[in-house]
Amino acid sequence: MYIDAAHWLHPAEHIPSPFHNQRDDPADISLLVVHNISLPPNQFGGPYIEQLFTGKLDPNVHPYFAEIHHLQVSSHLLIRRDGEVIQFVPFDKRAWHAGVSEFEGRDKCNDYSIGIELEGTDFHQFTDEQYLKLTQITQLLTKHYPAITFDRITGHQFIAPGRKTDPGVCFDWFRYFSQLK
Ligand SMILES: [Zn+2]
To answer: Whole-structure pTM over 0.70, yes or no?
Structure first.
């Protein structure tokens, strides 16, 4: 596994999202944010997450999609239940995953973070394949972007408390950090 000069991960499927922009300081990549997402909620395996992240979600397919199809959101990576990885935004660009957020007193976490979505919910265990791939990717990212130290890895729920709950109580931080070290 490696990261190329244009900040794309290999091997991974690359589905470029329009929902990104330049970081104020492209060299400031100093936080990793773990999320979960499923579309429709609590269903796995469809094409809908990548459709949302590329502005192509059909509002007529599901009532929930009518509420969210207009959102301009993305992440750098999605790790599916089977461990398949999709990248939407190169790591040196600002993906729109965190929204209003704050880490250790600094707001606008999108400016300086990498966002990784795990296909899942707050109430389902994540898969062995997801922990393995997340661990491998985290080890690579912390080498490639050394400002992402192990104490600068967090969850969406912790940088947007009261507003976000992912990755949720089913995400096993102890297992993740144990595998990392
Ligand atoms: Zn999130």
So the answer is: yes
